[in-house]
Amino acid sequence: MSMKKWALAKEEDGAVGEVAVVVADAEQTCDAVEEAHEEIASLGDAIDEAVEAHEDLGIVTEVAQESLASGGMDAFAARLAHRVLDKVSAKLGQAAPTFSKESYSSTRTRSASTTYTQESVKEKAKKVWETIAQFFANLLRMVVDFVNKVLGRGAEALKKRAKALVEAAGKKSTKHTAEESEFDYHAINTVATSKGSDVTHIANATKSLAGATAVIKGGTEMMVKMVAATTLEELLRLEEEAADKYDNAIGELPGGWTVKKDDDEKTAKLERNDPEAKSEVKLPSVKEIKTLAEDVGAVADAAKKADDLVKSVEKSLKEVIEHVNKAKNALGDTATDDQKSDAKVALAKAKAARTTIVEVMIGLSKLQISGGNAVLGYAEAALRQYKKED
């Protein structure tokens, strides 16, 4: 059986003409949401790299400190330590400390050279802490702008697009104009997976996009608790609790994941799209198209609720920045056990805040807008297969 292409919009098609402006606006604002999300996700990656760099420097500090009891690091250990310093220095845009194998080959010079390495680590670690604090200051600004400006516009445009489609569907008959009723699966690849790619699945996925708001709210509230934790043990307990509640519902947002209902039909879950998957989708009825549009309107309303979380996120990010700034000297040779413990807590809080904000709050909010627009694109293309009422 040959497969009929999606019908193109015709100038004389009044319904399509009426929605053309709001469709273009929705697509434009969706692009803006996705671009802003990419910038925040890139900053999230930079935070990950900075946190990893600090953890690597911590390992170098421990190795160097322990080696002093036996005269200092040997050439092999020193080479590994300097590789870490080289990598961190490059990320910071600074010159790396000079490595001399001969300085670590003699028992007479090993101790002094190891102390020199420790000083270099201390300097780099302090700069990494300052960088992490600056990254979170940038994240705070970008999140507030994303929610208050970009996301709001995207949700409003999505709502208008959904409303226009509901109205357009009311002007169509149920008489099918095409000879065949199967269409290219690729057109809805962002909202349907290779498992169950019929209109019922798309409708369920759309409802789950709206339901993702509960995941965003719950995850953000858990982050606030983690940032407010006073001990590492308490923070790790909350982190484990958050993983149990949200990991299966969130997954990894970048790279083509979509929201779907879990097997228990209660939990919003993401499933990987198969870019090679090929399937066919039956043409939905006009009534089903109208229902999809109404459901996407609910997605738009849900996306707007991210506004409620901004104040909590602002407060938590400011606390993270404060904790990070206090821990600048935690890798110094004079750092106390309390300072080292505080640094571990600050690092854990930074990681928890970064993951929740970038992947849960911003990631799922972006998915609500892009997924909602993808559903409407599918529904609009389907609606073009029907004649207007005579």
Describe the fold and architecture:
This protein is mostly helical. The chain has one domain (14-388). 68% of the residues lie in helices and 6% in strands. The chain has helices at 14-67, 75-92, 107-169, 199-228, 232-250, 286-303, 310-326, 337-383, and strands at residues 172-176, 182-184, 257-261, 268-272, 280-282, 386-388. The strands form three sheets. Strands 1-6 form a two-stranded antiparallel sheet. Strands 2-5 form a two-stranded antiparallel ribbon. Strands 3-4 form a two-stranded antiparallel sheet. Helix 4 (199-228) packs antiparallel against helix 5. The longest helix is centred in the middle third of the chain and has 63 residues, at 107-169. It is elongated and about 90 Å long. The protein starts with 13 loop residues before the first helix and ends with a strand. Residues 1-16, 178-197, 248-262 and 264-280 have low confidence and may be disordered.
Summary tags:
elongated; two-stranded antiparallel sheet; disordered N terminus; mainly alpha; 390 residues; single chain; two-stranded antiparallel ribbon
